[in-house]
Predict the 3D structure of the following.
Amino acid sequence: MDWGMQNRLSQLVQPDGRCYFLPIDHGYFQGPTRCLEKPGETIAPLLPYCDALFVTRGVLRAVVNPAQSKPIILRVSGGTSVVGEDLANEEITTSIEEILRLNVTAVGVSIFVGSRYERQTLMNLAELVNACEDYGIPVMAVTAVGKELAKRDARYLGLACRIAAELGAKIVKTYWCEDGFDTVVNGCPVPVVMAGGPKCETEREVLAFVHDGLQQGAIGINLGRNVWQSKHPVPMARALHAIIHAKADVAEAYELYQETVQRA
C-alpha cells in the first residue's frame, strides 16, 4: 500500500485500531433532517468525540471550518431523494479533481446490492476506486438498503460487504444485525464500521449494539442520527467514544452518559 493511502487511513483509524465517524450527509436525500437543519451548529460540540466527519461537498464548504476540521470522508454519490421513485438510483456526483481540491481524507459511496440499480451502483464503486487509487485516496463503501429494512440480515449484509471489498473498498460501512454479525465481519477482508440506521428507542439500546458489534469484530461506527437526534447529543457522543476508544462496557458507558447529562 502506498504511503499516501496508509497516511490517510491512519488519520481515520486511530492507533488503537478503532474509529468513530460522524455522518452529517443525510441532507443529500432527506433535505433539512430534524436536528440537522443547521449542521454547523449541530456538530460543533460533538467534534471532540469523533475521529472524522462524513459530509457532502456543499455542507463541507458551507459550515466546516477548514482551519479546525476533523479528517473528512466526502460523500460522492447521490442524485435521488426520499420523495423520488427509488433511492437506489444513484450516480457519482463529484469529480476526482473536486476530491483533490477539497483535500479530503477519504470518499464514501453507496451500493444497493439486490436492487434494480445493483450493477449501476457497484460500477459507481468500481470506477471511483479506479480513480482514487491513482491518488492514494481510500474509498468507503456504504451497503445501503434504501427503504427495504428487511434486508438487514447477516446473509444479505455479508454478501454486500464482501462484494464491496472485492471491488476495492478500503472500509465498508454496514448495519449491525442481531444474529450472525460476526459472520458478516469475518467474511469481509477489509475493516467494517457500523451504521446507525433509524433512531433507536433508547440511548442504552444504541450503546448495546455498538458494544456488541465491536466485540464481534467491527472497528468502529459511522453513526449520526442516534447521536445528534438524541435528547442529549454530547453525553451520547461521549459515551460512544468511551465504548470505542476506552473499551468501556455498556453499563460503564451508560453511567458516563447519565453523569454527563446531570452535569450539563
